[in-house]
Amino acid sequence: MSKSLISRRPVIRRGASSGGQEKAAGAQSLLRVLGWKPFFQQQLSLDELTDCEPVRVMAVHRGQLEVSGERGDEVVLVHGPLFDDAEEKPTVGDWLLLERDSRKPLRRLERSSLFRRMAPGAKQVQLIAANIDNVLIVTSCNHDFNLSRIERYQALVKEAGCRACVVVTKADQSDAHEQYREALKSYRDLPLVLVNALDSASVEVLREYCRSGETLSLLGSSGVGKSTLLNSLAGSELAATAGIREDDSKGRHTTRHRALYAIPEGGLLLDSPGMRELGLADVSEGLTAVFSDISELAAKCRFADCAHETEPGCAVRAAMDSNELDERRVRNWRKLEREVKRNSRTLAETRAEERAFSQLVRTVGGHARSRKSGEN
Ligand SMILES: Nc1nc2c(ncn2[C@@H]2O[C@H](COP(=O)(O)OP(=O)(O)OP(=O)(O)O)[C@@H](O)[C@H]2O)c(=O)[nH]1
Ligand SMILES: [Zn+2]
């Protein structure tokens, strides 16, 4: 158990030399292991380079964040303006700038990618994870394999801004490998890999998605083998060790579930409940990218508002009739578009309500202040 906990830490050695340059180089390589890239470095001003230290958010708990940086692991309290806005506040995978001495979080760096979802039962967007490089869309060699589901995940990944690969697990239980490859042959930017997730040699092909400094996450339904894959990639029991208790010098405490793990072979794995329950929020751009073949055809329809049903001169219908376009794919495109429109409407309403409310607060506050100054 303790071995697997230790292995979650980046396997990095601090330089023995106290020379300034070597120290800086050492700090840089520590940060690189945590996913630091030129994209983030370029966002720092000269003042920030001297006065601040970047740290990566490894877990978000109520009232505090677990972060990791050149000084190792730290806990940062969640308070102040940085954390006010639901859609802007730091989430797992984010890079924060801490004031070097006070360790106060000053700002969050711009993200290279972001996963969001509609909060279940609420009309709000919830941030799930940021700065993920690659995503494995996991499905298995059985009834779970479903093109419409893969397209849904692909839209999420495109919207977030990550690279995707489809992983079909339980390859050891099927002889129909060719059938799966054939099904995804025409999908743009979507490689497919068949693996036995229980066999670490078989998952080696996925290492290219979690090279040192690269952050990988997994999407897929329950039971397809996400935990099994993560454990095989990490070389230890990642998921099963979540939430166990351990002793430390300060006494007994609970080791809470971390969302982001640095694995010994390099690379970082992100596994959070939010990622596992991801739904479509506002992914209209992602959908356009995934279904660009259909949009290209739709642009050729005679009528701009063609519903691709019985209209004359419909290019989408013509492609379906000649079997160039799968009817299921068109149905799924329509379904996802409806879902996204519904979610976008709900979000727009929530944002309008929030704006109206903060306007009201400002107006009431303004009245109160002018009354007070009138009394004085
Ligand atoms: N034979 C075989 N079994 C697998 C493979 N991948 C996963 N399994 C088994 O499938 C079951 C489900 O795997 P999990 O890794 O728990 O699935 P999951 O996607 O994490 O499921 P949730 O935690 O519910 O999201 C386990 O019993 C695994 O041992 C595989 O490639 N081959
Ligand atoms: Zn049409």
TrEMBL record:
<keyword id="KW-0699">rRNA-binding</keyword>
<dbReference type="GO" id="GO:0005737">
    <property type="term" value="C:cytoplasm"/>
</dbReference>
<feature type="domain" description="CP-type G">
    <location>
        <begin position="122"/>
        <end position="278"/>
    </location>
</feature>
<protein>
    <recommendedName>
        <fullName>Small ribosomal subunit biogenesis GTPase RsgA</fullName>
        <ecNumber>3.6.1.-</ecNumber>
    </recommendedName>
</protein>
<dbReference type="GO" id="GO:0046872">
    <property type="term" value="F:metal ion binding"/>
</dbReference>
<keyword id="KW-0690">Ribosome biogenesis</keyword>
<dbReference type="InterPro" id="IPR027417">
    <property type="entry name" value="P-loop_NTPase"/>
</dbReference>
<keyword id="KW-0378">Hydrolase</keyword>
<dbReference type="InterPro" id="IPR004881">
    <property type="entry name" value="Ribosome_biogen_GTPase_RsgA"/>
</dbReference>
<feature type="binding site">
    <location>
        <position position="306"/>
    </location>
    <ligand>
        <name>Zn(2+)</name>
    </ligand>
</feature>
<dbReference type="InterPro" id="IPR030378">
    <property type="entry name" value="G_CP_dom"/>
</dbReference>
<comment type="function">
    <text>One of several proteins that assist in the late maturation steps of the functional core of the 30S ribosomal subunit. Helps release RbfA from mature subunits. May play a role in the assembly of ribosomal proteins into the subunit. Circularly permuted GTPase that catalyzes slow GTP hydrolysis, GTPase activity is stimulated by the 30S ribosomal subunit.</text>
</comment>
<dbReference type="Pfam" id="PF03193">
    <property type="entry name" value="RsgA_GTPase"/>
</dbReference>
<keyword id="KW-0694">RNA-binding</keyword>
<feature type="region of interest" description="Disordered">
    <location>
        <begin position="1"/>
        <end position="20"/>
    </location>
</feature>
<keyword id="KW-0547">Nucleotide-binding</keyword>
<comment type="similarity">
    <text>Belongs to the TRAFAC class YlqF/YawG GTPase family. RsgA subfamily.</text>
</comment>
<dbReference type="InterPro" id="IPR010914">
    <property type="entry name" value="RsgA_GTPase_dom"/>
</dbReference>
<keyword id="KW-0479">Metal-binding</keyword>
<feature type="binding site">
    <location>
        <position position="314"/>
    </location>
    <ligand>
        <name>Zn(2+)</name>
    </ligand>
</feature>
<feature type="binding site">
    <location>
        <position position="301"/>
    </location>
    <ligand>
        <name>Zn(2+)</name>
    </ligand>
</feature>
<dbReference type="GO" id="GO:0003924">
    <property type="term" value="F:GTPase activity"/>
</dbReference>
<feature type="binding site">
    <location>
        <begin position="220"/>
        <end position="228"/>
    </location>
    <ligand>
        <name>GTP</name>
    </ligand>
</feature>
<keyword id="KW-0963">Cytoplasm</keyword>
<keyword id="KW-0862">Zinc</keyword>
<feature type="binding site">
    <location>
        <begin position="169"/>
        <end position="172"/>
    </location>
    <ligand>
        <name>GTP</name>
    </ligand>
</feature>
<feature type="domain" description="EngC GTPase">
    <location>
        <begin position="130"/>
        <end position="276"/>
    </location>
</feature>
<keyword id="KW-0342">GTP-binding</keyword>
<comment type="subunit">
    <text>Monomer. Associates with 30S ribosomal subunit, binds 16S rRNA.</text>
</comment>
<dbReference type="GO" id="GO:0005525">
    <property type="term" value="F:GTP binding"/>
</dbReference>
<feature type="binding site">
    <location>
        <position position="308"/>
    </location>
    <ligand>
        <name>Zn(2+)</name>
    </ligand>
</feature>
<dbReference type="GO" id="GO:0019843">
    <property type="term" value="F:rRNA binding"/>
</dbReference>
<dbReference type="GO" id="GO:0042274">
    <property type="term" value="P:ribosomal small subunit biogenesis"/>
</dbReference>
